[in-house]
Amino acid sequence: MRLIIVPQLIRLALPGLSNLWLVLLKDTALVSVIGLSELLRMAGVAARVSKEAFLFFGVANLVYLPLSAISSIGLTRIDNWARRGKIKR
Prior knowledge:
The chain is mostly helical. The protein has helices at 5-27, 36-50, 53-82. The two termini are 26 Å apart.
């Protein structure tokens, strides 16, 4: 089961699961340390107080970008693992 059925299941289910994962990463603080909406809200508050919007939104970008990049790399590796026996045309 582990060697035959699970890779087939992952290959079929991974596109939908990866979309849900990225939506969770953007919308909630349950998946990551802080959600994108909370991160941008705090950056907006800090930008209004200090009048340096570019700095705070740049830092928010530097926090969110690695989270999404690591997720994308991990999902790509899982997809490559699941498709390792498929014939390429």
